[in-house]
Amino acid sequence: MDGNGLTGAMERLGTIPRTLSKLTQRSSSNFKFAFLFLRPEQREGLKAVYEFCRVVDDIVDERPPGPEGEAQARRELGEWTREVARIYGDPYREDDPPRTELGRELLRTHAIFDYPRDGFDEIIAGVAMDLERELYDDWDQLRLYCYRVASCVGFLCIAIFGDSSPAARRYAEHLGLALQYTNILRDVAEDAARGRIYLPLELLERHGVSRDDIMAQRYDDRFVAMATDFADAAEREYRRAWAALDDCDVRRLLPAEVMGRTYHRILREIRERNYNVFTRRATLRRRDKLKAAVAALARTSLGPR
What we know:
mainly alpha
């Protein structure tokens, strides 16, 4: 146990070596097939990135209640911002190396994959937004949040996959937004039970849906119309991602495509249920996940190397 202010976070983190099955189950079983297309060193890099995302997210989600809990979360996020700086040698790596096991693992894999630093810094800024607001007034606010907590994860992932070109960055940005929008729609009931609404208020108001309606999990024609608009926004982001993919090294981005095609099938399932996300959480059967992986393989096999 270190004594640098990361004690609470490291108690939650434990040690970095985790089995692949445990990590993918904790993050999302929907990503399991994507891991199958990675080399061992890529799997280790992705495990470290996912663990970073999990630990900073847990700092916010598992904080004690009240102002004391918020202050504690801000302190711990500040320590992780400094740990990221140590990974990048800011200011002197030899004098102040990473102090956590996860930081040292990220330093090791950064030497292989050259992670873009803005990915880590923006993820921390994104989870910190959950300390500042429980509601998002408009699409711009929500898009910034989703960019930070999803697109920026994508920037780290494409570095691991082997294509960080401008086109791949565009692909990762739009795919991250699409996946996060899909998550938000799928998890409306779960978030409401935690007292949170990620659907933008301007969208709710346009369809006559109130915050109380969401908290009470009222499913009616107003909700269906609102959810249809939100799903359409997610669909547009998937299409923008796939358009950008035409200019990428598509075979390197196969794991990302498996993730994207899997979540696109979840969005389709939500639509087929007429957006009733309250009675049962949308999930995919194993055969549906296999179909998504096959679709990704077909798409990438036709693209340039």
